[in-house]
Amino acid sequence: MNASPRFPSALPRALAAALLLPLGLGAQTPATFPTTDATLTRLWTLGNDSSLVQRLGQVLLDSLGPRLTGTARQKAANDWLLSLYKQWGVEGRNEQIGTWRGWRRGHSHIDLMTPRVRTLEGTMLAWSPGTQGKNLTAPTIILPRFADSTEFVRWLPQARGKLVLVSAPQPTCRPSDNWATHATPASKARMDSARAEVAREWGGTNVRGTGYSNALGTGSLGVRLEQGGVAGVITSRPKNAWGTIDVFESYNTRAPAVALSCEDYGLVFRLTENNQNPTLRLNLDAELLGEQPVFNTIGMIKGTEKPDEYVVLSAHFDSFDGGSGATDNGTGSLTMLEAFRLLATAYPKPKRTILVGHWTAEEHGLVGSRAFTEDHPEVVQGLQALFNQDGGTGRTTSINAGGLPNAGVHLRDWLAKLPTELSSMLTPRIPGSPSGGGSDDASFACHGAPAFGLGGVSWDYGSYTWHTNRDTYDKVVIDDVKHNATVTAMLAYLASEDPTKITRERATAEQIRPQGPGGGASGGAFAWPTCQQAPRKTNPRLR
């Protein structure tokens, strides 16, 4: 069995020292600045010629790895951030915001044993129990269609000791664009219909008439199956892409839960459906550790003239762990970390206080950022601007003013001072719309505070990397993250130096509604989002 991950005490210091050395990737073409601002010029030079994005990213994503909330790896990454802040001569702290269920992920060995031997592509869901250091070999059974939950409960004894297949059997593992390119119209229509049918049959909060839900992994259905004595639960959440699956979570405590690739789940499902008697062997190393402390990591450069007004660099630091959390949200974290370094170097005495917030448990309901706003009302009250990124590795191309018209006035002024090479790429969304809960800017926007959302190029984020087994270091586009860090640092500097504070008059529904997908709601009723209380311990999502 794998031991719990250990990180030598000298590691953060050694890594931080190495990171002080630039990569030497070659100087960029001088920018075309509309102003003679020396700090903007310095930020441009540092961001392009002395970037640490690649080195920081390799350590964070390869060595430290995914940052599942409540795990030792997340805490090690929190401490790594503090070691960097110390090297950069800025203040930093880990702020405990509560507890979350702890877990240790070890290996996942999943094999088809009969009617033939094949090692299957898959992994445990997060927080799955393991197999206690032994092989678990069991036959499979498909979750039938039930008339109601009473019939499901009567069926449960048939599943005792078996591995239950609870996900939709996909009729194809080819992406839709592949079908659109190569299939006949009639064939494509039949496939579209088949896909829609399995989605209806196996989705929602009443999977196959059981009265239970798979939620984001196994949900309440997995818990009920476990109570019925099943050996384990087999799932699959394939993307509309080649080889990618979502890897989310389980609330089982005894019966393991694993996610298989689309291809291998289909194989096991067909063998079971055709009475070819498949058996699987699972050897899963995992340890449930109970509630563990969880932390936001906060860096600070104290303001010299207006220390009670704040500019915040915002990104969530936690991730799911099917991959290494590279583009969700390692790249957002790297953007804000590098921007903070650039500011600490080129602008060490800001007018307003500059904070960087690396939030925990965003994936579980914006927990860390909501807790921060509750614990630090003075930051919400004094907020001049917050810049949040949580959209993958792509270069920033749009900035949402968050539904505040005056924020849009200030944003236009800041963009006018950026070098043409940057401003020409950026589209302001004014007045924009307040974030409704998709990322951590919502924790501030619900208070009516100026929270700017940074949007960018997709790089097939939704299909290939968002919460998938493929969200790894190699998917990071270093040039785009360097761009994002430089843009963010410049905007933060300009927000700090701005002679006036953004006022908080809110846009009307009529101002927000017509903007459409790029800048706000495109129809229907609009209401400003309300703030929600942060859970301070594990908040199960079973439905």
Report what the structure shows:
The chain is α/β, with parallel strands linked by helices. It is built from 18 helices and 14 strands. It has helices spanning 10-19, 38-49, 53-64, 72-88, 149-159, 176-182, 185-202, 219-227, 262-273, 326-346, 367-375, 377-381, 405-415, 420-423, 441-445, 461-465, 478-497, 509-512; strands at residues 91-114, 118-119, 122-124, 136-142, 163-165, 232-235, 257-260, 279-301, 306-316, 352-359, 383-389, 396-400, 427-429, 451-456. A hairpin with a 3-residue loop joins strand 1 and strand 2 (118-119). Helix 10 packs across helix 17. The chain is elongated and about 75 Å long. Mean pLDDT is 94; it is low at 1-10, 20-27 and 517-522.
In terms of topology, how is this protein built?
Blueprint: H1 10-19, H2 38-49, H3 53-64, H4 72-88, E1 91-114, E2 118-119, E3 122-124, E4 136-142, H5 149-159, E5 163-165, H6 176-182, H7 185-202, H8 219-227, E6 232-235, E7 257-260, H9 262-273, E8 279-301, E9 306-316, H10 326-346, E10 352-359, H11 367-375, H12 377-381, E11 383-389, E12 396-400, H13 405-415, H14 420-423, E13 427-429, H15 441-445, E14 451-456, H16 461-465, H17 478-497, H18 509-512
Parallel strand pairs: 4-5, 5-6, 6-7, 9-10, 9-11, 11-14, 12-13
Antiparallel strand pairs: 1-2, 1-8, 3-7, 4-8, 8-10, 12-14
